Amino acid sequence: MKELMIGDKKVIIRPITADDAAAMIDYMNVIGGESDFLTFGPGELNITLEVERNIIKGFLEKNNALFIVAVADGKIIGALSFSGGGRKRLAHTGEFGVSVLKEYWGKGIGQELIKYLIDWAKETKIIRKINLRTRSDNERAVRLYKKLGFEEEGLIRRDFMIDGKFYDSLMMGMLID
Ligand SMILES: CC(C)(COP(=O)(O)OP(=O)(O)OC[C@H]1O[C@@H](n2cnc3c(N)ncnc32)[C@H](O)[C@@H]1OP(=O)(O)O)[C@@H](O)C(=O)NCCC(=O)NCCS
């Protein structure tokens, strides 16, 4: 667990629990409508409470996965999930996704979530590589990832199609040694 002050607000970063399932669904429904840089849009996620609880439990059961939330005033305001491979040859590597509620953008919460992931990855001794992919025009995210030490590894063309328009994704990665 990690505690930070954002202005006069206390923000806690902690692993998610199955009891956060309902709050997580509400959170995802909000962020889907706040950014076109995510893999889902507004109203697209029809996840039931049971499915979400099982998704969370799936993360908690794996020793090479992490699912954390940033919480302020008892509400989820940010989240990060990372999942390592299920096979032995791929168990050391995985991809993460991160998001923050729009009203909290630019306050360092995304950065703190990713630093938590990097610290955790180093401690596991299992994870040796962190990957991410982001729309290549997501300047805010790319700048943040570079600042934290992620390097560009390649471009995936036409990775997104939103309202008939294609967008490329940038693959970025960090070696954990
Ligand atoms: C990307 C995202 C997670 C970043 O979280 P955040 O809490 O806003 O980021 P932080 O406040 O920790 O970091 C901000 C950093 O982004 C960059 N940044 C901030 N404002 C920026 C802007 N207007 N333009 C470009 N870069 C900017 C800077 O590197 C800044 O670092 P600084 O502290 O040195 O100024 C968040 O904006 C978000 O959820 N966006 C929508 C979903 C998304 O794009 N997710 C990532 C998909 S791969």
TrEMBL record:
CDD domains: NAT_SF. One of its GO terms (molecular function) is diamine N-acetyltransferase activity. Pfam families: Acetyltransf_1. Its EC number is 2.3.1.57. Residues 11-177 form the N-acetyltransferase domain. InterPro entries: Acyl_CoA_acyltransferase, GNAT_dom. Keywords: Acyltransferase, Transferase. This is Spermidine N(1)-acetyltransferase. It comes from Caloramator mitchellensis. The gene is speG_1.
